[in-house]
Write a structure and sequence with these properties.
It is a single chain. With 296 residues, the protein is an alpha/beta fold. The protein folds into two domains: 194 residues, 5'-nuclease (Rossmann fold, 3-Layer(aba) Sandwich), CATH 3.40.50.1010; 78 residues, 5' to 3' exonuclease, C-terminal subdomain (DNA polymerase, domain 1, Orthogonal Bundle). The chain contains 14 helices and six strands. Helix 1 packs across helix 2, helix 2 packs parallel to helix 14 and helix 13 packs antiparallel against helix 14. The two termini are 19 Å apart.
Length: 296
């Protein structure tokens, strides 16, 4: 099993859940750094994975999706400067802990995870995706696991419909139909989550729906009689949205197999970072325990 960690989710979670009066000697907030280091340390101690990677988002404005649709994620405010600084510290800690910290200006963390999932399949190794973002569940096959660490727990392929409403391979189509307000993807006007779910249950996929527009009026949803026409009028919107909601699995990486191998933690760099951030002994001791694990 290989473990692929959606780092940004846990950095943001720490930033908004940890006290903002946690500061370094110069008064800079370190709450996101502290919470992230504790999460990552707890994870490594609990799992002790042989193959692991930590994936970061780098930009809201330079991904290939903004080339397709400039309004993609345009509704999001830029991260505050104090959080940007802590993101850099989190990547530094990840590297110092001996883990791959991979980000790309063109590909989002989801795409980097997808790329490593595909690499794992090429060597017959399933993946556990560590995230709280349901979009990533579209990558699952029956051998894989979605793990909402410190949240809902582990979710297998067969459990995805009861948790997220549709099968893994339908998630991107579902978001293309119903839209995704978080990413500023409009989808098809007049098609909400319930209608999208019923359509996918009836026809299997977005392509299946469009291949059967003359039968859409048969589905048991409100407004079914006019639904086929809505879908037809907004076909281009749906297909554009589908380009945005799918995960790319072809990001360039040199020697993924070697990159996912853990290295020995650099305790010197970890302690230097913690000195700068005014972080005490508990996380330092955890880093030492992890260093001991790497020697076993």
């Amino acid at each position: 099993m290989q473990y692929l960690i959606d780092a940004s989710v846990y950095v943001f979670r720490a930033y908004y859940s940890m006290p903002d009066d946690m500061v370094d000697a110069e008064g800079n907030p370190v709450n996101a750094l502290y919470g992230y280091c504790r999460f990552l340390g707890d994870f490594i101690e609990q799992v002790n994975p042989e193959h692991v990677a930590v994936l970061f988002d780098e930009s809201l404005s330079t991904s290939f999706r903004t080339e397709i649709y400039p309004e993609y994620k345009a509704n999001r405010d830029p991260a505050p400067e104090e959080l940007k600084r802590q993101f850099g510290q989190c990547r530094r800690f990840t590297n110092a802990l001996g883990l791959l910290a991979w980000g790309s200006p063109r590909y989002e963390a989801d795409d980097l995870i997808g790329t490593l999932v595909e690499h794992g399949r090429s060597v017959n190794r399933p993946s556990t995706i560590v995230s709280r973002d349901k979009d990533l569940a579209q990558l699952l096959t029956p051998e894989d696991v979605f793990w909402d660490f410190a949240g809902k727990g582990k979710i297998g392929y067969d459990q995805v419909p009861e948790v997220f409403g549709v099968r893994p391979e339908q998630i991107a189509d579902f978001l293309a139909l119903a839209g995704d307000a978080v990413d500023n993807i409009k989808g098809v006007p007049g098609v909400g989550k319930k209608t999208a779910t019923v359509l996918l249950e009836a026809f299997g996929s977005l392509d299946g729906i469009y291949d059967n527009l003359d039968r859409v009026h048969e589905v048991n949803v409100r407004g079914a009689k006019t639904l086929g026409n809505k879908l037809d009028v907004h076909r281009d919107d749906a297909m554009l949205a589908r380009q945005l909601t799918g995960i790319a699995c072809d990001a360039p990486i040199d020697d993924a197999e070697a990159a996912m191998q853990r290295a020995k933690p650099d305790l010197g760099d970890i302690n230097n970072l913690f000195d700068e951030a005014n972080i005490g002994t508990a996380l330092r001791r955890q880093a030492e325990r992890i260093a001991d694990l790497s020697r076993d």
